[in-house]
Design brief:
This protein is α/β, with parallel strands linked by helices and 363 residues long. The chain has nine helices and 13 strands.
């Protein structure tokens, strides 16, 4: 366990946050920069909060190189609400979209979209328990599709895209569990979205980055809060936004900048992931079921092959200050989510425990 009694939290989300961010938030909890109040108590129309939300957007644009032709929206409802908002707003010509199914979240997104139009399942990796990313060629895609939908990184199954599919239609991506963890070219996408509770801050905030020419096509009977135009025209302030989550996101973005930006963060993440995968691959006890070329650098899944031994490993890890290592309830095994805020010391501590556990549980 860390000397300051903080555990290493490998939760998939809500997940660990950078200690300097938590310390700064704690310092400003009762009196935000001379305002005499907490951000939690602050009017979203106040000058102090307007400065917070504007700087948060500015820093995100800088870190992700987001062009002026894209809108940044700070919304609520999590990624799940985006499963509905996307087809409502983007089914504008053909009422049809292509979906690539690489895990549970993509399946749920496709199911929701099918309520509003036709969903074409281009490819799926369910035949091998979502342990790989299917290769997508242009001839697999519809000629009459309003968009192509992918889940960039699969939190549950530990896979990620290393090459993006090319399509005539706008590319839409759920980037919830990888946003700001590696450099991406935002101009390759029509829309991306991310729940904040993995790499950006606490739960409650959902970020949508959308190309301006895709806004304004929701049906007339669309509920006002489900229309991207509502939020775009009102700078995400049509109603009270998740103020404190936006503030925390802003602090996290400042921390990422202090680390050298996304490029530097990516190098750290790749180093952490390489260490952990090396330990798994060299082990006689642990195995990673994911194809090597498609392995996530954010969510590392592994198993012993014995569910009871997996449980023993997870329980023992808690005694070492290594928590939330259980795999998703639908798949079992172990999962180490090593998001941006997970220090390399946490990964090394996990590897040390894995070696000790293997030594004590030789078959």
């Amino acid at each position: 366990m860390n000397t300051d009694n903080r555990v290493y939290n490998f939760s998939a989300g809500p997940s660990t946050l950078p200690v300097p961010v938590l310390e700064k938030a704690a310092k400003e909890m009762l009196n935000y920069r001379g305002s005499g109040m907490s951000v939690m108590e602050m009017s979203h129309r106040s000058k102090d909060f307007l400065n917070i939300i504007e700087k948060t957007e500015q820093d995100l644009r800088e870190l992700m190189s987001i062009p002026d032709s894209y809108k940044v929206l700070f919304l609520q409802g999590g990624g799940t609400l985006q499963f509905s908002m996307i087809p409502i707003n983007l089914f504008r010509k053909y009422k049809k979209a292509d979906y690539v199914i690489t895990g549970s979240w993509a399946k749920k997104a496709a199911k929701e979209a099918s309520k509003y139009g036709e969903v074409n399942i281009v490819a799926s990796s369910e035949d091998k328990m979502f342990s790989y990313i299917p290769e997508i060629s242009k001839d697999m895609l519809s000629e009459d599709s309003d968009y192509l939908y992918i889940t960039y990184n699969n939190t549950i199954y530990g896979t990620r895209y290393t090459e993006l599919p090319e399509a005539k239609a706008p590319l839409v991506a759920d980037i919830s569990s990888m946003i700001l963890s590696e450099e991406i070219d935002i101009t390759k996408f029509g829309l991306v979205f991310a729940g904040a509770q993995k790499n950006i801050g606490p739960a409650g905030l959902t970020i949508v980055i959308i190309r301006e020419d895709l806004i304004g096509f929701a049906p007339e009977d669309t509920p006002i809060m489900l229309d991207y135009k509502t939020h775009s025209e009102n700078s995400s302030l049509y109603n009270t936004p998740p103020c404190y989550s936006i503030y925390m996101a802003g602090l996290t973005l400042e921390w990422i900048k202090s680390q050298g930006g996304v490029k530097a963060i990516q190098e750290m993440n790749e180093e952490k992931a390489a260490l952990l995968y090396k330990a798994i691959d060299e082990s006689d006890l642990f195995k990673c079921p994911v194809e090597k070329k498609d392995r996530s650098i954010m969510n590392v899944v592994f198993v012993t092959g014995d569910p009871e031994l997996d449980k023993k490993f997870i329980e023992g890890a808690k005694q070492e200050g290594l928590v939330n290592l259980g795999g998703h309830r639908t798949v079992g095994g172990m999962r180490a989510s090593i998001y941006n805020a997970m220090p390399i010391e946490g990964v090394k501590a996990l590897i040390s425990y894995m070696k000790k556990f293997e030594q004590n549980n030789k078959r």
